[in-house]
Amino acid sequence: MIRILHTADLHLDSPLKSLALRDPYMRDSVQTATRTALVRLVDTALSENVAALLIAGDLFDGAARSAKTAAFLVTQFDRLAAADIPVFYIKGNHDAENPITGEAALPANVHIFDGRGGKTQLPNTDIWIHGVSFRDRHAPDSLLDKFSAPVADAINIGMLHTSLAGAAGHDTYAPCTVADLQKMGFDYWALGHIHKRRVYCDAPWIVMPGIPQGRDIGEAGPQSATMLEIVDGAITLREIPTAAVIFHTAEIDVTTLTGDDQLRGAIRTALRDNTTPDSTRILRLRLTGQSDRYWQILRDQSLWEETIRTLAHETGQIWIDKVRFDLSPPATATHSATDELAEIMQAMRGEPGIAARLTDLLETTLSELPAQARAALVPTPDALATLTQELTGQGTAQMIALMKGASE
Ligand SMILES: [Mn+2]
């Protein structure tokens, strides 16, 4: 059996993004997560004695990477060199703008395909690796015409960084369709670029391995690299878990919980169910359901958030990204004075004059923020009114919760 490990989109030293990183202890323990993922890949390559490691683009994160990143990478590639394991690498859009990915900087066991494309035979096998790199960060046209025909009576693996048919609102990179790839006569397409793992086809294999280390809650899950196992010309696949830090969203339904003790118990259970060996989790926790205790929970929101963070801290493995209170109030038959006041408050913030005044106030407050932070909160002029409504909605709910929590 011959094994080949396929990965892409390491985005080495790319920062992880989560509110959990406000915790300095947390920051220290996860800032090297993308490196840990690479170390795990190399560990696997060594322990499973692979014939090659394929990196299908975006090894680096972009232009602003340091010599430290390169030095770390070289030490990892050297570990493979010591075991005579070659690395095949094509540059993706993020690598193309990086000045330190020059061939000279990397050890001799690293084979980099250039922008003209090429092919190389794996020593002592009938396996050929084909690949083509991005010349610069834009690749508006298909790169498939840079591939030579598959070698006859051999296993042909093509490496390509591509957005495939693309997605609305995203730039296209080296566009091509799954049907285009199927027509090329290769046995395995080692793709990169899209960060979510997907096997598009099994004859030939067309595989996007996904990012080995997610960087925010949008790249949730354990992440993996893809191991090819080749026996008598037939290829089968296996997933190799890689992420050192796993982003995840969990839910606690509070509908049937009747007291604080029960809610704390449910939080403990949710946290226990979300620990995994060998990895840290960054958890977004959602409290859902309809509860008679809706107003009390909302009133004590900061207390519950702090409780959740403390219980998470005790696990030594889970860090809280965010706690969301997506609860619905109980259906009540009675209509109290507080209900009436609540209705007035809700209606007031929708009044055009008041809404405009609130928007002005928010604009004044935001003007004291650095431009970049302001742009993140209010990317378009319309977003200011939306943000105002969101914030006043939260504020109103909290005011009502204080009144209700006290009276009921
Ligand atoms: Mn890319």
pLDDT averaged over residues: 89
Give me the CATH superfamily of the largest domain.
Metallo-dependent phosphatases
Cα gyration radius (Å): 26 Å
Largest sheet: 6 strands, mixed
Helix percent band: 25-40%
Bound molecules: manganese (II) ion
Spatial order of the strands in the main sheet? 4-3-2-1-11-12
Indicate the low-confidence ranges by residue numbers. none
Number of H/I helices: 12
**In terms of quaternary structure, what is this?**
single chain
Count of extended strands: 15
User: Strand pairing plus helix content: what structural class?
Assistant: alpha/beta
State the shape. elongated
The CATH topology of the largest domain is given as: Purple Acid Phosphatase, chain A, domain 2
SSE order: EHHEHEHEEEEHEEEEEEHEHHEHHHH
> What is the highest CATH level, the class of the largest domain?
Alpha Beta
Q: How many structural domains does the protein architecture include?
A: 2
CATH architecture of the largest domain: 4-Layer Sandwich
* Gap between N and C termini: 69 Å
Strand content: 15-25%
